[in-house]
């Protein structure tokens, strides 16, 4: 997560979200669909998942999530429930709003720390741009 690309999203939600770019594997709990995708943004209560394939999940479907690659995913809860989803244009993928289901306390603690670090990076980047902008005037 670079400070320049990091963004804080609120939009009247109960939890702040920060942009993320975490590769994940996902699987529908009933086992009829699975694939890869990425976490687009994350909060302490949920995640925006972009899948690499389009499918039609049922309301309240339970997803199993697992981070892949070199990024440590100890902040990603293992299960989440579908709140909404929609096809994502012509890319033949789907975006899904998921709400975490009873995450472990250690995972929640790691998630809060990651979100706080993201918020701090954004605040520092904004402060730096403000200082440089003032100097250029």
Radius of gyration: 16 Å
Distance between the termini: 30 Å
Helix content: 10-25%
Largest sheet: 6 strands, antiparallel, barrel
Name the shape in a single word. globular
Q: Which regions are unreliable across 5 or more consecutive residues at pLDDT < 50?
A: 1-6
SSE diagram, text form:
Elements: E1 8-9, E2 17-28, E3 34-42, E4 46-51, E5 62-67, E6 79-87, E7 94-100, H1 105-136
Antiparallel strand pairs: 1-2, 2-3, 2-5, 3-4, 4-7, 5-6, 6-7
Please provide a written account of the structure:
With 137 residues, the protein is an alpha+beta fold. Helix content is 23%, strand content 37%. The protein has one helix at 105-136; strands at residues 8-9, 17-28, 34-42, 46-51, 62-67, 79-87, 94-100. Strands 2-3-4-7-6-5 form a six-stranded antiparallel beta barrel. The longest helix has 32 residues, at 105-136. The chain is globular.
């Amino acid at each position: 997560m670079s400070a320049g690309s990091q963004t804080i999203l609120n939009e009247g939600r109960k939890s702040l979200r920060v942009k993320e770019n975490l590769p994940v594997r996902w699987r529908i709990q009933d086992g009829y669909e699975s694939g890869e995708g990425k976490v687009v943004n994350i909060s302490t209560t949920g995640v925006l998942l972009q899948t690499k394939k389009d499918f039609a999940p049922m309301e309240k479907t339970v997803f199993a999530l697992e981070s892949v690659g070199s990024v440590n995913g100890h902040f990603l809860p293992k299960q989440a429930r579908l709140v909404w989803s929609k096809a994502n244009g012509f890319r033949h993928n789907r975006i899904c709003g998921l709400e975490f289901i009873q995450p472990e306390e250690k995972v929640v603690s790691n998630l809060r720390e990651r979100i706080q670090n993201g918020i701090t990076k954004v605040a520092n980047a904004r402060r730096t741009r403000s200082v440089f902008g003032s100097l250029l005037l």
